[in-house]
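Action item from last week, closing it out:
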Amino acid sequence: MRVLIFFCFVVLHAGMPLGELYRLADGMNIEGARVQQACGKEGQVWANLCVVLDRPIETGVEWKALKALTPYPLKEASLTEYNEVQANYTYLSIMYYYIRHARELFEKEGLVHVNIHVFRNSSGAKHLELLKHLLAMSIPNPERYGVKLTFSHGVETMEVADINVSFSLVVGLNRQDPSGSLYIPFAHVPFSLSDLVYDERRLYRTENHLLESVREIVAHQPHWLCSVVNHYFTSLNGQKNSQSCKLLNFEDFKCVKLLQIDGIFNPSELEGRDVCVVK
């Protein structure tokens, strides 16, 4: 009788400075893909775009300061490098695609239920109000395309639908990606801000349909949508009135791995602590 003994080796890399988190992931958010996994249904199409908001390690501007000092309903208005017009054009182009192609993507009798979701709590209603306004200027009658359109917001829940198009704001870690950068997440790694342990064995991949559709969205974007956003949207921040949007290129999007954190990331509250990396 032979006994086989297997050894599992775990490599620990202790002492990575917090400022080097960019070596592990491009960004971080709270929701990851867990909400979609909990609220989704079999056969559901889920598309998730993430836009970089704050970059506290690089700029020193933390979430708590951004939240406390911004006089605007949406925090992105306070960041002058964040092009709100371009971000809104990107949102509109993605929504337009999934509404127009809903019946091709999800076959069923009757209307296809498309839900637009933003992963925001207190500012979620204001963000949806803006998205609804832009859609009303471009697709005033979604039922014409066989679509029942709904909207929802929140970090902990999401409406069950045939197609869920969701938008997230993320903390940027990559030094090369400015605020407003467009991310399409393909994987997440749970990362607790209390223990600061990065365990790559906990990585999970996501079925993000946007990974499949982004080339088609870019290739067939209606040019007039750009005019809609430039005409109907103006930032509340007067310093950004010169911003406008341009047509999207495939290179504008970046497929990324994100850290799924369990709270608000303010680096000053973690000062002096290092990250333990497990691979």
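Closing note: Residues 35-187+206-254 form one domain.
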